[in-house]
Amino acid sequence: MSPLREYEKLQIMLKCVQKFGGYLRLPMVRPHLYASFYPLMLVGSLSVTVLGELAGLSTVNLASAKTIISPSLSLNQSSVHNPSPFSNQFLISQSADDYFSSGLEKYEQGDFPGRIADYTQAIRLKPNYADAYYNRGIVKSDIEDLTGAIVDYSEAIRLKPSYPEAFLNRGNAKDDLGDINGAIRDYSQAIRIKPDYGIAYYNRGISQNKLKKSRAALADYSEAIRLDPEYVNAYYNRGIVKDELRDYKGAIADYSEAIRLDPEYVNAYYNRGIVKDELRDYKGAIADYSEAIRLDPEYVNAYYNRGNAYELLKDTSKAIADFQIAALLYRKNGDTTWLNKSRQRIQSLEQNATQSPKKK
């Protein structure tokens, strides 16, 4: 099996809290785990070829990566040492594996139709090929055919009931389709099969939080962290839940740990700034928003929220400057709602500045 591929999925929808024009909160970070199998080649005797790590992987827990001989290619001892070149069973298995390997090779090329065709051909030649159903499900997930992906993951599970990766990926697809309870059941089944499956706890935590089960989500993130003390996104998401539960100091501690593990975690600085705002530590909030802006100079929401903090500190000129930059970026992004809010804030501050009596 290849190393686990963990994709970060940051939803673009912003959660707003109406306070001084609105603090813009970021949602959970959600990874999707897609674990492809590398080809297992039969050349006279059973041997395994494991390819190198895929390029561009992010947040991969290499400690959990394992090399596994796929059950779909396990042969009895006599067939391994004495394969008959005239055995139809051996030839069919070899041909199915060739298509399976071809589907893997096409991953690098981004050839989604070709990958589906190869896995389909492997399944046609070998109908009980659980790993081919699983990998075809991954391709369908990649092209947003989530219903089709669920069908393939389900068939892989039927053929191999103790298949934690298939349960986890089916849970991801169900969650994306809005079947949150179904997703939780699948994550729970993955955990039952593999009790140290940290990403299953992590993803179940996200689904629990969608159902407003904050305490259950907190427990799941904590277990993911116990299993992997450097699980940066688990700290980040646990910080969000603690913030929602008004455990502001706990939220700051989790965001700070995420930042310690990843000093360029821009969203962690941003969300920590919001919590400091809640605690009326406006100077601390400004420092965090400023760091987020340093890391991402077009982080429009950080400008907006920093403008809030400057206003609360009565630093009108800096507040106006931040709202002006936010307005420019909102206009650039086509966000008319927050563009108008920024303009309203500028107008209000400028009016207050002209009406305020000048100090002698």
Tell me the layout of helices and strands.
Layout: E1 5-10, E2 15-17, E3 23-25, E4 29-34, E5 42-43, E6 45-46, H1 77-81, H2 88-109, H3 112-125, H4 130-142, H5 146-159, H6 164-176, H7 180-193, H8 198-210, H9 214-227, H10 232-244, H11 248-261, H12 266-278, H13 282-295, H14 300-312, H15 316-333, H16 336-355
Antiparallel strand pairs: 1-4, 2-3, 5-6
Mean pLDDT: 79
Q: Which stretches of 5+ consecutive residues score pLDDT under 50?
A: 1-93
Alpha-carbon distance between the two ends:
76 Å
Number of helices, counting only DSSP H or I runs of 4 residues or more: 16
Tell me what the structure shows.
With about 350 residues, the chain is mostly helical. It contains 16 helices and 6 strands. The chain is about 65% helix and about 5% strand. Strand 5 and strand 6 form a beta hairpin. Helix 8 packs antiparallel against helix 9, helix 9 (about 215-225) runs antiparallel to helix 10 and helix 14 packs antiparallel against helix 15. The relative contact order is 0.08. The model is unreliable at about 1-95 (pLDDT under 50).
